[in-house]
Amino acid sequence: MKKPKFDPAWPESWKLSYQYDLEEVFDQPTSLGYCYAYARRMAETLRLVAEVAAPPAAILDVAAGAGNFSIRLAELGYSVTWNDLRADLVEYVRLKHDKGDIRFAPGNVFELGFESCFDVVLITEIIEHVAHPDDFLRKIGRMVKPGGHVVMTTPNGGYFRNPLPKFSECPDPSQFEAVQFKPNSDGHIFLLHEDEIPVLAEKAGLRVQAIRHATNFLTHGHVKTGLLLKVLPRAIVDGVEWMTQRLPGFLKRRLHTSMSVLLSKPA
């Protein structure tokens, strides 16, 4: 991935994407917790894709933003389709794209005619921004080929610091339609809990293959541990993460901030 040279004349959307890229992929973090959490999510996503599809499988990256996941997958040899509502980001992604096959399909992904087109559809940090995650997942499932997969990452609703409601306990999700699709954590509506995912998957015609919890509060710098991250070697942080991921299920769900989910579509 190429690092673009900052230009003050860039559109504001490019400038904002560049600031995130400095944190996420170009090793200039202002928050180590954010940087570590992003790196773990990237690694887990690539691992799940590799478990179920070999290059040059067709991958759709939905709401891909600055395109870092798309670019990494293309570099690994996958045939990637980048999608986002923000068409202005296409040329920014091109600035970073160095090698591999990426096609660009900006716009509302549900209006692009992608019926049963992809071996894997990637939905990373998206479902928590929609008012109707059940409808969203059902539509995503239609884009997957029979025998294909959906790889989803989302904040873990079971995390002990989560203040947001469960989707399954909301009697009228339509009340949130006016505020959906807002970026960043300010736009989170529901945070899904592990026990909700099989129900949503079944309604979408999908099956749960794996649910993995990751990024404990130390890795993410929560509960005032951000100061510790400035002095702890990365190896120790990773070691603590390794240990908490091997705790019993209840503790894993309470101590980790994120979930990675692998769903399959019956052949």
Helices, strands, pairings?
Blueprint: H1 12-24, H2 32-52, E1 58-61, H3 68-75, E2 79-82, H4 90-96, E3 101-104, E4 118-124, H5 133-142, E5 144-155, H6 197-203, E6 207-216, H7 217-220, H8 226-229, H9 234-244, H10 249-255, E7 256-264
Please provide a written account of the structure.
The chain has 267 residues and is α/β, with parallel strands linked by helices. It has a single domain (12-264), classed as 3-Layer(aba) Sandwich (Rossmann fold), CATH 3.40.50.150. Helices cover 34% and strands 19% of the residues. It is built from 10 helices and 7 strands. It has helices at residues 12-24, 32-52, 68-75, 90-96, 133-142, 197-203, 217-220, 226-229, 234-244, 249-255; strands spanning 58-61, 79-82, 101-104, 118-124, 144-155, 207-216, 256-264. Strands 3-2-1-4-5-7-6 form a 7-stranded mixed β-sheet, with helices on both faces. The longest helix has 21 residues, at 32-52. The radius of gyration is 18 Å and the shape is globular. It starts with 11 loop residues before the first helix and ends with a strand.
The number of distinct structural domains comes to 1
Any idea of the CATH class? Alpha Beta
Mind telling me the CATH superfamily name? Vaccinia Virus protein VP39
Query: Compute the gyration radius: what is it?
Result: 18 Å
Distance between the termini: 35 Å
Output the structural class. alpha/beta
Helical amount: 25-40%
Here the CATH topology equals Rossmann fold
Please sum up the structure shown:
With 267 residues, this protein is α/β, with parallel strands linked by helices. It has ten helices and seven strands.
